[in-house]
Amino acid sequence: MDRRRAAGLLLGLALLTGCADGGTGSHQMTGTLLEPPFEVNGAALVDGSQSPYSLVEDTDDPLTLVFFGYTHCPDICGTVMSTMASAMTRLSEEDRSDVGVVFVTTDPQRDTPAVSADYATNFDPGFVGVSGDLDTISEVARPLGIAVEQGDKLPSGGYDVTHGTQIIAVDADDQGIAYWSEAVSSAQLAADIEHLLSEGA
Question: In angstroms, rounded to a whole number, what is the distance separating the alpha carbons of residues 104 and 73?
Fold first, then answer.
């Protein structure tokens, strides 16, 4: 089997295997390329300055990483946010300027726009944190494969919050083109970002 045919097969299997060489043979993706890509919902959320923020209208970078989580999350959210922050430091200045990062809370009852923004910028001053009402957040999350739900109150007085653990890559055409699991390392994420940017993401 020639290389071109093998590359095509790998790309076609990306959703199943989570890896593809992008047709160049020079990089093995850790994340999963989405074919067809996810459509991004442009419903307006709210940023830290109380202004409307849309994943369609306000994400103009060649690549935007989107993560849905919440500030009271005991483990995964902080880990993923730290991974993204560390990945940004591994990029060249040029590549870093082409990448945006947006944290969308799945717990708007506690995470106001200001709280969400503070949480995001604590990981990196360039990160954006947004909130909104739960129905709008769910509406934005659903096409990206993220389920958002606030459970019943617990005996402790708190409540369960469900959220996805994936990092979603949105391109300049407002399409979700790839995702990574929470297990991705900062080095793997940075390498994938560099590859996507080099491919014109």
Answer: 13
